[in-house]
From TrEMBL:
SUPFAM superfamilies: PIN domain-like. Belongs to the constitutive coactivator of PPAR-gamma family. Residues 329-345 have a biased composition (Polar residues). Residues 819-829 have a biased composition (Low complexity). InterPro entries: Coact_PPARg, PIN-like_dom_sf. Residues 405-416 have a biased composition (Basic and acidic residues). GO terms for cellular component: nucleus. This is Constitutive coactivator of PPAR-gamma-like protein 1. Residues 313-323, 888-905 have a biased composition (Basic residues). Gene3D superfamilies: 5'-nuclease (3.40.50.1010). Residues 309-349, 390-416, 800-925 are annotated as: Disordered.
Length: 947
């Protein structure tokens, strides 16, 4: 229910069209605005069944390249708009909670489907992969397609851009656009680029909407407001719907739209006050004010009310004359800082990033598909020039707004943000961000050159984090948003100059200044509201998160963004690496970490520095092998490749790393963009489908070379990058899952202990080598299996790189140190053994049979006396002239004991023969035999042998 029902109601009224055919008959080119939020799956490349694996970014870029070439050839100029708006409460939670709840249900269905069937999920559960917005913005910027990101109200700004820049039409799928009635309106959800070189979609005849709905034109906005929306929700109109005969929560869209249209049509007048009295019965009702506000909202988007539109943060700026340069107020900027752009946007820095990008894609299989010819680039540049000459002037630059208006707008927005913060009953004592920082952030945000969270943090001190492809109840992987929260906390402190304010306050306090004594009662702190939808807190209230300063004197955000000195460049990179816990020498060594893999390396190191053990050794190698794979950018090969064994853990690991990459991009922008935007593109280091394949192979490969398809150069690169990631860390990888061993974890022999009879157990020097019978003895605790990691050979007694399962001094916990275990090698053990042998005399070995301890010499004499079950088959064999029987050791005895009741009678005789043949046993030999038998148990779970 709601205004979106109007869009659903008119789906059948659309007419199929080809945008390229319309462009041929349109003089001067066909210019359109595309609302990307309604066709994210289309921009991703259409539907592909492997989107849940983490994102196929190479395939996405290939599709966008094909789309850009087709648009340029048919003279269609497209401006893509993304939703970067952050409306203030209470408008935020209602609509946002509904969207996140829908995504949460889909994610649960996807993970359940993958866990049970191991196949990709169906299209109906499609959820945007983590990092899709960043990938689209970077790819479109690379392809010279104009971008616009909204900041206050998405739909209003999109339709406003369409009217201001005189675009020919709008492509979207929101019911609000139908009420706004743009020049021409096309469906973004039906957008499809076909192999016939046509761009097909549906067109809605918005100007015929009053006739279709049978509602007067002047009452169209009132009808839309009564359908329910962001301002006046449908829950507030429940009583009104009951009067119309709608009592169910979910009704067909046709029923609701027709009932509301009939009510609006029968009103005596189009006066809003009269309508409020008819709907609510009283003008003093709080809902009446919201109804008026909702009607005005729709009027502001129409052609007549467009010029009178006022945003929540100020008046609509008047368009400036063409060619007029904005006046820059000298009071608002520092004398030594250029705030028109970031210092890293210099020509030298951009060329360096382009060179690194070409170097990274030089040997890629997809480079021929991605790299466009010079003619195509000329067409794209001509298309951009056509947009500028038509009055667009780079639609996202918003040159119609002067910097003074920008500063006033951001100051007002910041003030409103501070007022909304009082709703959550918390306050901080940190001053607002500097004006030049706010202005630069607003300009870069509108052009899609900065992470959308930056403007929301600086103006509203709030941030919304979407639902990810993760399980709320997962035991091995924590909540992803909470896991990467320390990165965001460092970003908050950097953006609000917390270190600088604390330093100045401490300096003033030391100087005994009394003028600022009231402001230094407590240190400067900033608190940000993080909206995270989870099972515990389904969007009811935000989580208040304080900023945390880094452990070194970080420069101010002005110096990080605009400083041009060589020290500023180093400090920008150091600040970024410090946020990612990656400030190590090898991280900046390009022979270990290539420039285009720096984002991935910092994310993996941040994961490894956590106290929570998430990644396993082979999983870390799988991520690195994916980044260095020759097939990473071969979109055609990846599309045809089939992956066997997709599991939910691999899917969640892909979402974990991509969420970390998003946090790294946020930290990069906050620190002045030390990593060039082009080499931070996700398709240079990640592909979800290839990752799932490598994760599956890593569990079965014996060594790293097999995982890297026997490419030795790739093996060397993976080893070096892993060394840089783990530099200076005491690494503890996550434990692999225990295999289902028969008799231990309920396998086929899980009922071995239910037989009748007392049974028996054989021990040699205190080590159990076999047991049989009815299972009256309890099963031993299963040892953890020995695992051969990819590219790594662990010691035989400790398969996880640790000091031992019982710590350095016999404790039961896993020790974190490594030095003691490394020092206690074979030499140390032999020394201890020799000392023990010198101090204590050698004792004869003992055997325990059926709970009785028997010496070796006594064992032989007892057997010689005879037994009713003695086996004489060996004597018969010798008499026949056959080969003499081999001497059986303890190892062979273990294999034979317990094979069944048929051979149960000769166990004592075999051991006796062994002892008589070898004579008196030496203690060291027995210990060596026991050690060998114990090695055989490792990896087998010490499963008892059944009858």
């Amino acid at each position: 229910m709601g205004i979106q029902d109007l869009q659903t109601f008119l789906e059948n009224e659309g007419v199929g069209v080809d945008l390229f055919r319309i462009a041929r008959n349109h003089a001067g080119g066909f210019r359109l605005v595309l609302d990307a939020e309604g066709c994210l799956d289309r921009l991703y490349g259409g539907y592909f069944s492997d989107w849940a694996c983490g994102g196929q970014w190479a395939r996405c870029v290939q599709f966008l390249t094909t789309l850009a070439q087709a648009l340029a050839e048919h003279q269609v100029a497209l401006c893509v708009c993304f939703n970067g708006a952050h409306p203030t409460p209470p408008a935020l939670p209602h609509h946002w909670i509904q969207t996140q709840a829908t995504y949460r249900q889909r994610v649960n269905s996807v993970l359940r489907h993958i866990a049970t069937k191991g196949t990709p999920p169906p299209k109906v559960w499609w959820v945007p992969p983590m990092g899709l917005h960043s990938c689209l913005r970077t790819a479109l910027r690379y392809l010279n397609i104009p971008i616009m990101v909204s900041s206050d109200d998405h739909c209003q700004e999109v339709v406003g851009l369409c009217r201001e820049k005189t675009y020919a039409g709008l492509i979207g799928c929101s019911g609000e656009y139908l009420v706004f009635q743009p020049p021409r309106y096309f469906s973004s959800s039906q957008l499809k680029l076909t192999y016939r070189s046509s761009l097909e979609t549906k067109e809605y005849m918005v100007h015929e909407l009053p006739q279709v709905l049978d509602v007067p034109q002047d009452r169209l906005c009132l009808m839309a407001a009564l359908l329910g929306g962001t301002i006046l929700s449908e829950q507030s109109l429940t009583d009104f719907y009951k009067r119309l005969g709608i009592t169910q929560k979910k009704v067909p869209p046709e029923t609701l739209v027709k009932a509301v249209c009939q009510f609006v049509k029968e009103l005596s007048s189009s006066d809003v006050d009269a309508a409020c009295i008819d709907v609510f019965g009283d003008l003093n009702d709080l809902r009446a004010a919201k109804l008026k506000q909702a009607v005005q909202y729709y009027l502001n988007g129409t052609k007549d009310g467009f010029l009178k539109y006022r945003t929540a943060s100020g008046r609509r700026p008047k368009p400036s004359k063409k060619g007029q340069k904005p006046d820059i107020s000298p009071q608002s900027t520092s004398t030594d800082l250029d705030t028109s752009k970031l210092a890293t946007e210099s020509t030298e820095h951009e060329l360096k990033g382009l060179e690194d990008y070409k170097l990274a894609t030089a040997n890629a299989s997809m480079s021929a598909d991605l790299s466009m010819e010079e003619r195509s680039f000329d067409i794209l540049h001509g298309m951009a020039a056509m947009s500028v000459e038509s009055g667009e002037a780079g639609p996202a630059k918003q040159q119609s707004t002067t910097p003074g208006d920008k500063i006033e707008k951001q100051t007002t927005t910041s003030r409103e943000g501070r007022q909304t913060v009082k709703h959550f009953q918390y306050e901080d004592n940190c001053s607002p961000a500097p004006a030049e920082v706010l202005r630069t952030c607003a300009e870069r945000h509108a052009r899609g050159l900065m992470h959308p969270h930056m403007l929301s943090i600086l103006t509203h001190r709030q941030v919304t984090l979407p639902v990810l492809m993760e399980d709320d109840n997962h035991r091995e992987i924590p909540s992803i948003h909470h896991f990467f929260r320390p990165i965001r906390q460092n970003v908050y402190a950097i953006l609000y100059n917390m270190h600088h304010h604390r330093f100045m306050a401490q300096k003033a306090k030391e100087e005994g200044s009394t003028s600022s004594s009231s402001g230094v009662d407590r240190p400067c702190t900033v608190q940000i509201s993080e909206w995270i939808y989870s099972r515990v807190n389904p969007g009811k209230s935000p989580e208040i998160v304080p900023g945390i300063v880094l452990d070194w004197p970080v420069p101010t955000v002005q110096r990080l963004w605009f400083g041009t000195a060589q020290d500023d460049k180093c400090r920008r990179m150091r600040a970024f690496l410090s946020c990612m816990r990656s400030d190590t020498p090898l991280m900046l060594n390009t022979s270990y970490v290539p420039q285009h893999l720096l984002i991935l390396a910092t994310v993996l190191r941040f994961i490894m520095t956590s106290q929570i053990q998430i990644l396993r050794r082979q999983e870390l190698d799988a991520f690195l092998a994916t980044a260095f794979s020759n097939d990473l950018m071969n979109a055609l090969h990846l599309q045809e490749m089939t992956v066997n064994g997709i599991n939910s853990r691999g899917v969640q690991l892909g979402a974990l790393v991509m969420a970390g990459a998003e946090a790294a991009l946020l930290a990069n922008d906050a620190c002045g963009a030390p990593v060039p935007w082009l080499v931070a593109a996700p398709w240079l280091y990640f592909d979800g489908k290839l990752l799932q394949r490598n994760l599956h192979r890593a569990n079965h490969c014996k060594h790293l070379a097999q995982l890297c398809d026997n490419h030795l150069d790739t093996v060397v690169k993976v080893e070096r990058m892993r060394k840089a990631i783990l530099e200076g860390l005491e690494v503890e990888f996550a434990m692999p899952p225990l295999p289902l061993v028969a008799g231990v974890v309920g396998g086929a022999l899980g009922a071995w202990g239910r037989g009748r009879g007392r049974g028996a157990r054989l021990e040699i020097a205190g080590v159990v080598v076999g047991q049989w019978g009815g299972g009256s003895y309890p099963a031993r605790t299963a040892r953890y299996p020995q695992v051969s990691y990819v590219g790594y050979t662990p010691p035989p007694r400790n398969a996880y790189g640790g000091r031992g399962w019982r710590g350095a001094r016999g404790g039961r916990g896993r020790g974190r140190g490594r030095g003691t275990a490394a020092a206690a090698g074979p030499a140390a053990r032999s020394t201890r053994r020799s000392r023990r042998d010198q101090d204590e005399p050698a004792k004869p070995a003992t055997l325990t049979v059926n709970g009785k301890t028997v010496r070796s010499d006594e064992m032989g004499s007892q057997i010689e006396e005879g037994s009713p079950h003695e086996d004489n088959s060996a004597l018969d064999t010798d008499a026949d002239g056959a080969q003499p029987q081999k001497v059986k050791t303890a190892k062979n005895a273990k294999k034979n004991i317990g094979k069944g009741k048929k051979k149960n009678y000769n166990q004592k005789s075999e051991i006796a023969q062994t002892l008589e043949t070898n004579g008196p046993l030496d203690k060291n030999k027995v210990a060596e035999q026991c050690h060998n038998s114990e090695k055989e148990h490792i990896g087998q779970g010490d499963a008892p042998v059944s009858n």
